[in-house]
Amino acid sequence: MKDKFVKKNTGRRLWGQVLSAGLLVSASFAAQALELVTPEEAARPDMPAGTRGVTRGPAITLESPAAARSPMPLKVAVKARGGAHIDPKSLRLTYLKTPMVDLTARVRPGISETGIALDEVTLPPGLHRLLVHVADSEGRETEVELKLDVAR
């Protein structure tokens, strides 16, 4: 299933709106920081940027301060519209590198109907582009590209 998602989305230009930020403190899930992105993954070439049209699917927002240092908390909020409910099993987090890296298994302990909430994740210094994908109970889907700028 994971490979199907990555292959399905490779080359697509459905990245959604771009949000720049660090991350906000959230509910506790681990005593030590989770390595969200390895230095080797960060060194891969970036995926080309794309655009996306308007959607009636769920809203995705990165709740965070303007700057970030690693380790940092990770909080991504998702909200269904029109009386629908979020399907937590549909939530995917992908690192936009070539080839793309599916980070969903790494953040699985922090996934719920309200989004992703982890106390501490680590990322190498630099700009990191993540794609968040989620669907609601009516089958409407949304993908949003988030940019995390980690201080050097």
Shape: globular
- Unreliable spans are 1-30
Figure out the total of helices: 3
Average pLDDT, rounded to a whole number, is: 79
How are strands sequenced across the largest beta sheet?
A: 1-10-9-5-6
- The tally of beta strands, per DSSP, is 10
**Span from first to last CA?**
35 Å
- SSE class: mainly beta
In percent terms, what proportion of residues is strand?
A: 35-45%
Helix content: 10-25%
Q: Report Rg.
A: 14 Å
Overall number of structural domains: 1
> Looking at the chains present, what oligomeric state does this protein adopt?
single chain
Largest β-sheet summary: 5 strands, mixed
What string gives the helices and strands in order?
A: HEEHEEEEHEEEE
SSE map:
Layout: H1 2-9, E1 18-21, E2 34-35, H2 39-42, E3 59-62, E4 72-79, E5 92-95, E6 101-102, H3 104-107, E7 111-112, E8 115-122, E9 126-135, E10 141-150
Parallel strand pairs: 1-10, 2-8
Antiparallel strand pairs: 3-4, 4-8, 5-6, 5-9, 7-8, 9-10
